[in-house]
Amino acid sequence: MEDPLLEENGHIVREDEVEEVGLLAKSKAESKRLWKLAGPAICTAICQYSLGALTQTFSGLLGEVELAAVAVENSVIAGLAYGVMLGMGSALETLCGQAYGAGRIRMLGVYMQRSWVILLASACCLVPLYVFSPSILKLIGETDEISDAAGKFALWMLPQLFAYALNFPIQKFLQAQRKVTVMLYVSVAVLLIHAVFSWLFILKLGYGLVGAAVMLNASWWLIVIGQLMYIFITKSDGAWSGFSWLAFCDLWGFVKLSLASAVMLCLEFWYLMILIVVTGRLKNPLIPVDAISICMNLQGWDAMIAIGFNAAISVRVSNELGAGNSQRANFAVKIVSVTSVSIGVVIMIVVLATRDIFPYLFTTSDAVAKETTKLATFLAITVLLNSLQPVLSGVAVGAGWQHIVAYVNIGCYYIVGLPAGIVLGFTFGLGVEGIWGGMLGGIGLQTLILIVLTSLTNWRREADQAESRVKKWGGSISTD
Fold it and tell me: Which residue spans traverse the membrane (predicted)?
């Protein structure tokens, strides 16, 4: 069966033009479209996640201070900037996806340029975070030695910040057109280059952290350059028509949607990171922090799968709503939810089955391994919830609900989950299990609210709103 959302002479085939088929055939067709998007998106996320992980691994061979400097810069300074840039860039998923579905291909390039303007300005605003990072790190409790080393490394990593500002709009631009294999090829090539030259610069030639910074910056800029070369050379099937002064029009509307996206995703992105910080406030925190760091490491890899499905459903929903195909958008949500949860159940079972084994892949300490085994149940539940929650967030991005989900996240995560974790962990003396348990309650509540919100959605009205949005930003849906 052919994809019902096809361009023919610039026209998007609508749902009423495609004959109805059986549920099984429709499910297979939708699943095929899903994996064509999610598969490359998952691999791309893993490759880009691996850039920082490889740098951290090589830096760990230099010494404990070097490892701590890179780890803290990656997780705290660059992690915060990554969340902001990714969040603000996600506004493009709504606009580009719906414009593409509506057949307004030319506007995608203009949208990307507007996002570049906003994200580059945001990157400039984040520069003080890097410049004053030693003081910030000391303020949140890091030692002077680690804070100074991480702060020095953060200054060297400023070029990466501006690579983020260009990269995320480019990726949303390509994702909206379902050109995810382009991103995959570029990311795989850069990862291979990064692995070889990081070993050469950091260890073989002895450049240490300077070499680590040079290669990590260079790798992120290679990703940007590789993707831009594809766009400039191929014109991306008409989506790129050159630089335009239109990029500076209607910026305030873009800023509002970008800020809503940033708040929504940053609140999710930082939530489990806070778990490690809060755990560090326990009495005798070394073993609990080591154990929860192992769990968060595994959860980070699992999150790459969720990010792939998040991107896939965002594209599917925005494309179908932009084309006026409300029922296809609804059906896509159901298929991706079932698929992602099924994978989450499998991973949850694997975590529980190997709870006495996997800790020793990361530590030689019996005490740390025992504590990690105790936390395996919480990790398993987190994996299961995070198999659905990012999918529902992707639906929100595709439909343009970022501001609603931002309020939901504030309430569930920071008014319910985090305080509950602190009370259970410290007041009731349940330690790290209480902290994580309370925060899991926040994730569970947020997931439940998003399920209800999605279930009650009037998809026909969402398609009409998408049409209004496309008219506002670049013209009406073609009806010929």
Answer: 116-133, 153-170, 182-202, 208-233, 254-278, 331-355, 375-397, 404-428, 434-453
Q: How many domains does the chain have?
A: 2
List, in order, residues 6 or more apart from 336 with CB less than 8 Å away.
34, 38, 309, 312, 313, 316, 391, 394
* pLDDT tens readout for residues 155-179: 999 999 999 999 999 998 998 888 8
How far, in Å, CA of 400 to CA of 258, rounded? Answer: 11
Q: Quick check: is 150 in a domain? A: yes
Residue at token pair 């990361």 = 362
244, 271: one domain:
no
pLDDT > 70 fraction of the chain, expressed in percent and rounded:
91
**Angular region, 477: left φ>0, alpha ψ -120 to 50, beta rest:** beta
Selection from 96, 36, 61, 79 nearest residue 335 by Cα: 36
- Asked if the structure places residue 8 within a domain, the reply is no
Rounded to an integer, what distance in angstroms lies between the CA atom of residue 249 and that of residue 365?
A: 58
pLDDT for residue 11: 45
Examine residue 255 and state whether it is found in any structural domain, yes or no: no
Are 213 and 285 found together in one domain? Answer: no
The alpha-carbon radius of gyration of the chain (Å, integer) is 22
State whether 358 and 445 are in the same domain: yes
State whether 228 and 179 are in the same domain.
Answer: yes
- The residue segments making up the domain with residue 44 are 35-249
**Angle (nearest 5°) at CA 40 between 201 and 313:** 130
Residues 348-389 have pLDDT tens digits of 999 999 999 988 877 778 888 898 899 999 999 999 988 888
Q: Does residue 479 lie in a domain region? A: no
Distant-in-sequence, close-in-space partners of 61: CB < 8 Å, separation ≥ 6 = 202, 203
**Terminal CA-CA length for the chain:** 24
CA distance 297 to 369: 14
